[in-house]
Amino acid sequence: MAEYEAVIGLEVHVQLKTNTKMFCSCKNEFGGAPNSHVCPVCLGMPGVLPTPNEEAIIKTILTGEMLECQIAPRCKFDRKNYFYPDMPKNYQISQYDEPLCANGAVTLNLLAFPKDVQNDPKVNFDKKIRLERIHLEEDVAKSFHYDGASGIDFNRAGTPLMEIVSKADIATPEEAFAYLTALKQILIYGGVSDADMEKGQMRCDVNVSIRPKGQKEYGTKVEIKNLNSISAVRKSLHYEILRQTADVEAGVPIIQQTRRWDDGRGETFMMRTKEKAHDYRYFPDPDLLPLNTEEGLHQTAKSRLPELPAAKKSRLVADYAVTEYQASVLASEVALANYFEKAAANAKNKSAVANFLLNDYFATGGDIENIPVNPEFFSELSNLVEEGKINTKQAKEVFPKMVAENKAPSVLVKELGLSQITDTAALEALCDQAIAANPRSVADFKAGKTNAVNALKGQVMKLSKGQANPQVVGDILLKKLSA
Amino acid sequence: MASPDIDVRYVADLARLNLSDAEAATFQKQLSDILGYVAQLEKVDVSSVAAFSGPVVNNLRPDVLGESLPVEVALSNAPQQENNLIVVPKMIE
Amino acid sequence: MSSPLYTESVASLRRKLAAKEITAVDVADQLLARIEQADGKLNAYNFKPDAAKVRAAAQAADLSKPLGGVPIAIKDVINVQGDPCTCSSKILQGYTAPYDATVIKKLREAGAVLVGRTNMDEFAMGSSTENSSWGVTRNPWDTDRIPGGSSGGSAAVVGGHEAFAALGSDTGGSIRQPAALCGCVGLKPTYGRVSRYGLVAFASSLDQIGPFTKTVEDAALLMEVISGHDPKDNTSVNRPVPKYTDALKQDLRGMKLGVPKEYFISGIDPEVEAATKAAIEHFAKQGAEIVDISLPHTEYACAVYYIIAPAEASANLARFEGVRYGNRVKNPKDILDLYRSTREQGFGPEVKRRIILGTYVLSSGYYDAYYNRAQKVRQLIKRDFEQAFTKCDAILTPTSPTAAFKVGEKTSDPLQMYLADIFTIAVNLAGVCGISIPCGFTKSKLPIGLQIIGAQWGEENVLRAAHGYEQTTEWHKELPGI
Ligand SMILES: [Zn+2]
User: Fold this and answer.
1) Residue B29 is part of which domain span?
2) What domain count does chain B have?
3) Would you call C150 a catalytic residue per the annotation?
4) DSSP conformational letter for C11
């Protein structure tokens, strides 16, 4: 029996974060009362003309820059003609033969993959998925369907939309998952979009075919729609690859078609076959003059290039001495990395701050957007430990209160009466007390059982109500016992 | 240039236009004549000519909020509406 | 007996208003009476002015403004807030414009009084104003004849003295050709000179709004008001607006005027040819230098136009389907039926013909052969003009190959109708400017127009030449029988 491999390409639509729509100055906002953000232009009234939003063009070029694309020196818009009630002019202003950005790639990373495969040795975590193109267009209206009728809200009509088309470089559902996660991360990094699939800010159509391993020609392509989350993309691909493999093995030919993913049932259903290709009659939009991107637009976009995840990760390792893994996690979200850099600014041990943030903070169930804590408190807390003012166990007692009450660790240490006893004279007295009370342990130690010192140490800690500095206590005990 | 082999019914369908049989027949003849006339462009040597295009000018709109229409004005021309939505027969995907 | 007030030019009206010889309300009243008297015969207005509104606007007009108190008619293709804008189509019945076109804002700011909406070929597609859901407009010089088109209503109201001036739109000659046929002045500005925002698009890369007036001076006055960059029109050009009336102060001496040999070939009516040649001689006598030029790709202009204009129109008119505004068919079976039947019932035959033609030339497999090739030939046509204007300041040609033809004469043969625009089309394709002015009459007293073509931004030369001719001839003083 032949082994099959999947060939997957993704078309991702991304809503750009701008104040206004692509071709008119109506508000670009999700929600709002129906048809409250509309004007003659975005309603396609007779006689209106489009005016291109500078910011949307800059953000598209910025995306191209972040994704290593070539930026076209000329930006031209075309009309894509088809009738649909959600499209006011019955043509969409889009870009046909001259996309703003061409080629480029999304580089995957370990953390972008689903957790359950992050330890799989067969996965190539650093794979590059090449891009075909990125172009800019206008979004369509939102429609609501009732019995026998549909209602249309044009608030979304004409908002800027970027289409990112990958090459068919994706081989597994997990790579598709990682591609979308990594892409989303970069879009957020650039402030280009919030890229939330559940809110429709990022929408994904999948093309998938299978072929016997080793075969050069592609199999028949099937398109999957209605994918509302990154995990739905992964699940639908698993389903679809199995379905297509079973069909091929049973001798049923795959026909070119569009299928709809039903997330509840975990299955795809046939929507339509492509009996005839669309005839979109693209032509250059005569209402819009071509633009020269080299006159400012490209420069502005470049000046806004953020530090990207991979670079940020390397810098965190170099400048903060955090581990590779900590750096990857920190760099996976701009907000997290930014917070960390503030939190670790004055810390003597920056890796300890990373631990507090990544382990202790997230263990409280909090998220980074709404973290209520003054970031400087992280430095302060780790320095208290570092300077021996409290021990790590005490730090763990302070931490939840620091988060819950946004109070300085030094204040909390006092409130909780946690200051550590480092006064050698006091500790020597406690050690003498422990030695006197535990002749057995002393004898064991002298007989060569060096572990016996731990029992004594435990006694001293108990006597000090946990406030003794364990390191200092150990030193004193050894000195006294070896005397 | 292709021979004037226009399929009026196919094109009318693309343009979402019903045609009566009489109209389709008349248009078939008239459009064939017109296409025959424009076929003279084949004679022009355009091998080294770029297609006409408007001047390259960065006439851009700053991303600043402007005024939208009040919803009642926006919908005042709508043939059918309900709950501030424009209503059409059910759309098919 | 002095001529009635309604025959005055805008400039003389302005002088009389300034001298307080008349009031803006007098002007409005006399015009309203004239419209009542004449429009029954001409059918030039789709919507005649509302008397009360016009009198109120005249009363309130600020006479210090450049067009203060001057009534101006508007082609029914330009949006005026709160007014219908039917484009002479059934599909836009019931539509009320929710906004003002930029030219309307400019007219209002200049103190003009808007009077009525003029008839046109449906969606500006035609050369005779016969393709109108409101019926044919008649030529004021002979009501058996067409006024030209597509801005036939605007030409007829100015030529027939039912308006002092009017706005029209010109995509392939739709201002100049009817101006010639109705004996008035019509100017098509350089592409990008006047904002198209609010003009219902026919062919976006060709459309321009321009004035119909009784004199060249009036055309200059209106151009000063309506020209200029508009951020709402991406294709409008950011370039200062000259004081066009200053261009009229120079006479014809020293002007170099080109005569293209390609415009005097077969198909041109002998009376039109004779009048045009006489006009050229007149220019020479007045001190202009006449130079022979060539516009070799002119012969292809019509073919190029009938690919590009319908292609753009097929997309521009896709928005008329009864979803958001206008006439929707009753009880459609489904959404496809809503589209197909609404458009079947809403559009007239010429519009359907051009939509089908335009859809076809863009459709898969034909784009390169038709649209792309046409855009290349268009580039050659543009280049012809650029070269010609290195040798002359303006170009003289007939506006239309014939004077006004009879109603119904050409309706059965669209191709023959299309050739009525043969002398005006290249100007739109090249994006340059042109004017038509009266230059004579046929034996049966039908006006003949002379076209003066200028380079891009060459309006001042065109106006200077036109004014120099007009001031030394009497044609523009003739009044129609209506
Ligand atoms: Zn809008």
Assistant:
1) 8-42
2) 1
3) yes
4) H
